[in-house]
Amino acid sequence: MNPQATAPPRPDGATEAHLPQKSDEKPGSRGLRYRLRVALRRPTTAIGLLTLVLFGYLIAVPIVTMLMQAVTVSPKDALVVQQPAGSLTSYYLWRVFLSPVAADLFWRPLVHTLVVSACSVVLSLILGSGLAWLLTRTDLLGRRWFSTALIVPYMLPTWAFALAWTTIFKNRTAGGQPGWLESIGLTPPDWLAYGGVPITIIFTLYFSPFVILLVGNALTRFDSQLEDSARMLGARYFTVLRTVVVPLMRPALISATTLILAKVLGEFGVTYILGLPTDYNVLATSLYRNITTRENGAAAVIAAAIIVIGLLSLWVDVHFLKEARRFVTIGGKGAMDRTRPLGRWRLPATALCGCAFLLSVAVPIAVLLLSTLMHRPADFSADNFTFDYWFGHGLDTPGFTDGVLVSGAVWSATWNTFWIVGVAAVAAGVLGNLVGYVVVRSPSRLLGTTLRQLTFLPYLVPGIAFAVAYLSLFAVPRGPIPALYGTATILVLIYMAEQMPFASRAGISSMMQLGPDPEEAAQVAGAGWWRRMAGIVLPIQKRALATGVLMPFIAGVRSLSLVVILAVPGMDVLTTFAIKLVEYGYTQAANGVVLIVSAVAFGGTYAIQKTMKTDLGRGLGG
Fold this sequence. Notes:
By secondary structure, the protein is mainly alpha-helical. Helices cover 67% and strands 0% of the residues. It contains 28 helices and no strands. Helix 19 packs across helix 23.
């Protein structure tokens, strides 16, 4: 019998007939050619190459195109620069960094950005770490409830808190309706109503949940016997904290710092709402103003600077994490997670957590809701309450005369949000799982590594800078690709590309938990690749796929920085529609739309928890 005719198919898709025969070639050359031929015959290689081309165009090419705009003359500035359009120039670098307007364009916004970022990081770490310690290492009252309640701000749009702040503290500097305090005769100073102080407070309240999650989970895995041993040797409590706890918590603290810094750099909504009235610009708002005035070259330079700062923060993160690996614990069955009794401090600690919940969740949502039910701000008399801003018609707001829930413009923005973000989320989830399949299953380590790093790149680029990159690439026709600016297609593409770091990581993590044995068994039985994917891989990975779809959907629904310069009239989503209402001074309507966005984001997060049978606070609390 011919053994070649009866041999079962190999899991890698090759047969004995395809194996290289004896020849005079060097063994290394034969091995390389064999691996290349095997790789080319596997579906993972074709999928990997196709996704590499796709994400190269959707992620790398826009960034390169934007950077090119920073050093090439635009047609608009050809006369100013006295060079032909498209030629290399240092004009935009000079304009942003050295010109008489450089202070307003870059240096002052840079200082504001660094101050707000540093203060937000420090205060978030202090507040979040303290709350995480109370939730994980003490007998706090209701700590299981607080472990979920205190991370609710993570589920809401950042700038919802800014709208709540302006509803209370707004003064007549910005015009329009007065804030609640001014309505009762108390006029807040500008430094409290607008600028760096309220921006920092809001960022602190919003980003503390990140610290609670990261530090809390690290504390949960921390062996309390290490503390006991140090105390038995005579170390004081703060000495134990400084020499034992903090070094072991350093990876979580560094990760939280990098995450907060990256978010603050690209955050647009909060700084726009609270910085615009007093001309308090950060890099994100300076970038936006340059785009709206069609100063694309200067905008590209500022966007590149934001990316460089983000990359520097990542480098610092990697460097300190390497140092932090010197501090490790050897855990096992003997590890203990003992809670510390608070004694007479138990009620004050519980009150502190309650205040944190009130300030970060209950008060902002209640203020936004109440503001939509009042004709006159801060007037709590019965005849002042109304549902007109939700259901009414013929309101005294020109251009927006219907209530939020009966307005055709709001329903149009809602429909755009659901179908645009929905399509992008499904595409991101499916492609993220394909990326995970290629990275884990591909015989080419180079292909897998390149694809993995490429899909992670949007994480390093703040949202508004990524939007500028897309505007640079898709504002004009390029080859067979038409101009996409002003269409729904560009919104779908940028939503999808921006969420690939999370979708691809979810796909990679889930595929690493799925061994190759089920696929190999099906292949031996004669099942083709499509049959294996439909019958084995996808059914097993359905929960990972659901997460890969829902997470991008939630992030997309509440995202503003990513699309604020790409959405045009008629193609608004809820976030861009709300920011336009803010610009018009329609406080009640804007707050109503933001409440809708918050409800969708919160509901989506709740759906993820039910789908995954877990919760964001898992591992925190008792």
